[in-house]
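Lab manual, section 2.4: Encoding a predicted structure.

Procedure: take the sequence of the chain (235 residues), apply the prediction step described in section 2.3, and record the output as structure tokens. A sample record is shown.
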Amino acid sequence: MQTDGKKENITLALDSTSSPLYMVLDCGGEVYRARKAGIKQEELLFPALNKLFAKAGVKLKDVTHFFYVKGPGRFTGIRIGITLASVLSEINGVQSSSADLFEILKYQAENSAEYKKWQKANPGGVLCLIIHAFREEYFSLLCTENAAPRWSSWEELDAELINGGRPLFVCGWDRERTSLKEKLPANCVYASARLNKINASSMLELCDKLTGKQTLEEVLKPLYLKPARFELCGK
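Recorded output:
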């Protein structure tokens, strides 16, 4: 996997925030993908990684760049990405970078012809990102100036969507990564399937854009939104 004595760029991208565990491996432009359903990502990670590396004919030590999704989602799933980024950076000198689900969904939407067409037809409209969290709880972000991601019940979120009184272009998913379309109020347009999932190309593009521009502290800073159970018990 080397050319002219130079180590080829091999990028590993990971989303372990929820099920399914999703991994992408880019070996000099040859892209391999793997998905593994289940919430115990700590048990699924290395068997799935080993199969992915075997398919590509490389090893973990060959990775030069690592990108992971740093939340929101399951506490343990987010910690997996943080730990792997920390270990790879410290031991192998891998260049690590990260982004949260909202940043990735926003990047995908704003670079799509679909959203640009909608925006032109709805100049006062707003991009809205919704991600199922737990039971009837959701993570969401209205992409307006100074807006921050939040965690709320669907009832609270639904009222906010309606009361805003403006067209909304919605990207995201319901439980088990299913469609939100039937739950959305009339002022919402639900994006097409490609914009309602995290795409391999987006993770790899963001890795290229962010590598060398984030400090290690920024790379390892998670977006939890909902505290872990043990944190709630301490309050």
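Check your result against the sample. The CA atoms of residues 133 and 139 lie 6 Å apart.
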